């Protein structure tokens, strides 16, 4: 056999061995990207969950935070989201009626509670009842709230004040923000002395004090539903929905004061 023929034979054998070696390698699932539209009040918990989920799965989690109403409208307009986590069932109901949810994927994920916060760390507790004198405690200042007719935290807050007979005197003094984290920031920076936010928001900010918790019966239950959106399906989306109730995610939610619901 000539040298050139021998070389060609060896090269062919080497190529076959290389391909056989590739075939013998274990296969791994391709990493995917999951875009999550989530209520702003979930910011701190989802930041931790994002890091843990990506480390555990290799998938890339892209989280967009805003008021549930704004996110729902973006989804209606075709925004490329995969998962939606709303701060109340109403906006999820809207998307479901529009046929924008993947059938059978919706479930209630979390509960929260509603609190009155004050600027600083040394504010005195207040009795959250029909006897609360808002004009006196506010003076010439404002009560920070999320949008009371659109954003869940604002809707719950308005309902609570109405239930206690306090809304008429509170309404002219309300400073409305696009989302609950913006309302929290107004109080944290001292631009408003008091605000109504979720209990979990207060945990995330060192420069506010919870001065009272609204009675649970003063507003509808605060429920966070989650669902896969009906635009595309991928194994990464299914993995993320399952991960939301895994021990790691549960710990992250509970650390922020959420109650994780069993599915």
Question: Keywords for this structure?
Answer:
ModA; five-stranded mixed beta sheet; disordered N terminus; D-Maltodextrin-Binding Protein, domain 2; 2 domains; 263 residues; 22% strand; single chain; alpha/beta
CATH superfamily of the largest domain: Periplasmic binding protein-like II
Structurally, the number of domains stands at 2
- Specify Rg, calculated over alpha carbons: 25 Å
What fraction of residues sit in β-strands? 15-25%
**Distance from first to last alpha carbon:** 72 Å
Topology, number of strands: 11
Poorly predicted segments: 2-29
Q: Tell me the number of helical segments per DSSP (H or I, 4 or more residues long).
A: 11
| CATH architecture level-2 label of the largest domain | 3-Layer(aba) Sandwich
Shape: globular
Q: If you average the pLDDT, what whole number results?
A: 89
Secondary-structure map:
Elements: H1 3-24, E1 33-39, H2 43-57, E2 60-66, H3 68-76, E3 83-85, H4 89-97, E4 107-112, E5 114-119, H5 134-138, E6 143-146, H6 152-163, H7 167-170, E7 174-177, H8 180-188, E8 194-198, H9 199-203, E9 208-213, E10 222-228, H10 235-243, H11 247-255, E11 259-260
Parallel strand pairs: 1-2, 1-3, 6-7, 6-8
Antiparallel strand pairs: 3-10, 4-10, 4-11, 5-8, 5-9
Structural notes for this entry:
By secondary structure, this protein is α/β, with parallel strands linked by helices. The chain has 11 helices and 11 strands. It folds into 2 domains: 33-111 and 223-260, Periplasmic binding protein-like II (D-Maltodextrin-Binding Protein, domain 2); 114-213, D-Maltodextrin-Binding Protein, domain 2, CATH 3.40.190.10. α2 packs antiparallel against α11 and α3 (68-76) runs parallel beside α4. The longest helix is centred in the first third of the chain and has 22 residues, at 3-24. The N and C termini lie far apart (72 Å).
């Amino acid at each position: 056999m000539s040298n050139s023929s021998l070389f060609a034979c060896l090269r062919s054998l080497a190529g076959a061995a290389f391909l056989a070696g590739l075939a013998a390698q274990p296969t791994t699932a391709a990493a995917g990207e999951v875009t999550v539209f989530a209520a702003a009040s979930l910011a701190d918990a989802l930041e931790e969950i994002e890091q843990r989920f990506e480390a555990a799965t290799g998938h890339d989690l892209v989280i967009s935070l805003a008021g549930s109403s704004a996110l729902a409208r973006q989804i209606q307009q075709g925004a490329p989201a995969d998962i939606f986590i709303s701060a109340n069932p109403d906006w999820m109901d809207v998307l479901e009626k529009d046929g924008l949810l993947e059938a059978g994927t919706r479930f209630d994920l979390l509960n929260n509670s509603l609190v009155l916060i004050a600027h600083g760390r040394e504010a005195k507790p207040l009795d959250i009842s029909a006897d609360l004198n808002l004009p006196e405690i506010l003076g010439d200042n404002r009560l920070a709230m999320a949008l009371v007719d659109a954003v869940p935290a604002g809707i719950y807050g308005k309902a609570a004040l109405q239930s206690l007979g306090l809304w008429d005197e509170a309404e002219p003094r309300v400073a409305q923000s696009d989302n609950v984290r913006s309302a929290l920031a107004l109080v944290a920076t001292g631009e408003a002395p008091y605000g109504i936010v979720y209990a979990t928001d207060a945990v995330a900010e060192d420069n506010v004090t919870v001065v009272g918790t609204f009675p649970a019966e003063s507003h509808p239950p605060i429920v966070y539903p989650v669902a896969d959106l009906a635009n595309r399906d991928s194994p990464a989306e299914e993995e993320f929905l399952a991960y939301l109730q895994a021990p790691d995610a549960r710990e992250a939610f509970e650390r922020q004061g959420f109650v994780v619901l069993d599915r």
